[in-house]
């Protein structure tokens, strides 16, 4: 019987990965007793909003097998650590780091980063958000923690600020944003490494880093020093933003950080009066760029007043309207990001070449 059950299960396709649950090694503890099948389904990514549907899909397939009276599937997620660029040692307690970047400012990188972090948490993961955007640290406002100060522990560590179910730390808490950029620039890499290392994050499945916009020295150094599992690039459909986004892609390629995909923000404007959709910044740019570079388009967000109002109010769309259309778009992006990470290597060996010094005899 178990063989027959497994062969039926091997025809059931996971809607998130496109693979069947058997070859993806998700099926555990399969039991068959007196006509009752029970099994665990282990997913490598968080998908709380879909676990009931996945269980139903599996139970229904098993229910068609002759001799099966009932089937019960328990769906849960088990998120593991994946290797970072060039075998950089991982951050203690943090399984995966996702960098959110953009080629230029103002394309909605921070809005995407915060909603992505909250969507991963809504899907059941433990998540942290590190705001490294030196030009305009906006996460304290977006997360509704603008006037809070992180507490120091033993004069050595700092506690992240918790709200909406995730832990947030911002470079805005450390640097003086009133200081001219020329002062802040050289300090930022050190301040950021310090923030990453000295924040008591606890155990995290994912840490989302909101990088500063652009592709200058700061970004390059950060993407060399921070062990990143993968990067998400945010762009608007305008040509110029896409040109800048191309520079972002090149930068990550240079330092060996895998690109998880592209988010096209402000894709279309939906008129709040008549519902008419208008592609103000052009159409299809993200998809075309994705195709040119072999990068996936993870999702498209409309230019929607509620997205701005929600982040301004410190309650991003994923928490302000968790079952709404916008939250659904962010959750779908989050699942795609997590699925892509789950498919990555778990080989933690260093990719640096070994240098052997031989003595001449
Ligand atoms: N899809 C959207 N619909 C409507 N408004 C949006 C959308 N995405 C972002 N915004 C708004 O656009 C502005 C810029 O967004 P955000 O701060 O996220 O961009 P950024 O790329 O991180 O900018 P910076 O480079 O300054 O850090 C914000 O006021 C935000 O609320």
TrEMBL record:
GO terms for cellular component: cytosol. Keywords: ATP-binding, Hydrolase, Iron, Iron-sulfur, Metal-binding, Nucleotide-binding. ATP binds at residues 103-110. GO terms for biological process: iron-sulfur cluster assembly. InterPro entries: FSCA_dom_sf, MIP18-like, Mrp-like_CS, Mrp/NBP35_ATP-bd, NUBPL-like, P-loop_NTPase, YlxH/NBP35. Gene3D superfamilies: Fe-S cluster assembly (FSCA), P-loop containing nucleotide triphosphate hydrolases. Residues 6-75 form the MIP18 family-like domain. The keyword Metal-binding applies. GO terms for molecular function: 4 iron, 4 sulfur cluster binding; ATP binding; ATP hydrolysis activity; ATP-dependent FeS chaperone activity; metal ion binding. Homodimer. NCBIfam families: PRK11670.1. Binds and transfers iron-sulfur (Fe-S) clusters to target apoproteins. Can hydrolyze ATP. HAMAP family: Mrp_NBP35. In the N-terminal section; belongs to the MIP18 family. Belongs to the Mrp/NBP35 ATP-binding proteins family. This is Iron-sulfur cluster carrier protein. It comes from Iodobacter ciconiae. The gene is apbC.
């Amino acid at each position: 019987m178990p063989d027959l059950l497994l062969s039926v299960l091997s025809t059931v396709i996971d809607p998130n990965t496109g693979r069947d649950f058997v070859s993806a090694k998700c099926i555990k503890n399969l039991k068959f007793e007196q006509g009752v099948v029970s099994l665990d389904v282990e997913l490598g990514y968080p998908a709380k909003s879909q676990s009931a549907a996945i269980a139903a899909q599996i139970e229904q397939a098993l229910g068609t097998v002759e001799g099966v009276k009932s089937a019960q599937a328990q769906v849960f997620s088990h998120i593991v650590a994946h290797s970072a660029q060039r075998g950089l040692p991982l951050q203690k307690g943090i399984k995966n780091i996702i960098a959110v970047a953009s080629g230029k400012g103002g394309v909605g990188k921070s809005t995407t980063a915060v909603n992505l972090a909250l969507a991963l948490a809504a899907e059941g993961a433990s998540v942290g958000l590190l705001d490294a955007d030196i030009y305009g640290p906006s996460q304290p406002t977006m997360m509704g923690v603008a006037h809070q100060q992180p507490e120091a522990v033993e004069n050595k560590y700092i506690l992240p600020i918790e709200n909406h179910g995730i832990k947030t730390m911002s470079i805005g808490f450390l640097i003086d944003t009133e200081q001219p950029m020329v002062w802040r620039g050289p300090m930022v890499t050190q301040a950021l490494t310090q923030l990453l290392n000295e924040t008591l994050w606890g155990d995290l499945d994912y840490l989302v880093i909101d990088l500063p916009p652009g592709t200058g020295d700061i970004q390059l150094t950060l993407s060399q020093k921070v062990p990143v599992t993968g990067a998400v690039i945010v762009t608007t459909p305008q040509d110029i933003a896409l040109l800048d986004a191309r520079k972002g892609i090149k930068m990550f390629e240079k330092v060996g950080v895998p690109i998880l995909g592209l988010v096209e923000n402000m894709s279309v404007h939906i008129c709040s009066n008549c519902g008419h959709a208008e592609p103000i910044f052009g159409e299809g740019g993200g998809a075309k760029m994705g195709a040119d570079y072999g990068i996936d388009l993870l999702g498209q967000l409309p230019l929607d007043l509620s997205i701005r109002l929600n982040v301004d109010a410190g309650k991003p769309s994923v928490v302000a309207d968790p079952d709404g259309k916008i939250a659904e778009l962010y959750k779908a992006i989050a699942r795609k990001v997590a699925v892509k990470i789950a498919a990555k290597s778990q080989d933690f060996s260093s990719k640096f070449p070994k240098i052997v010094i031989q003595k001449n005899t």
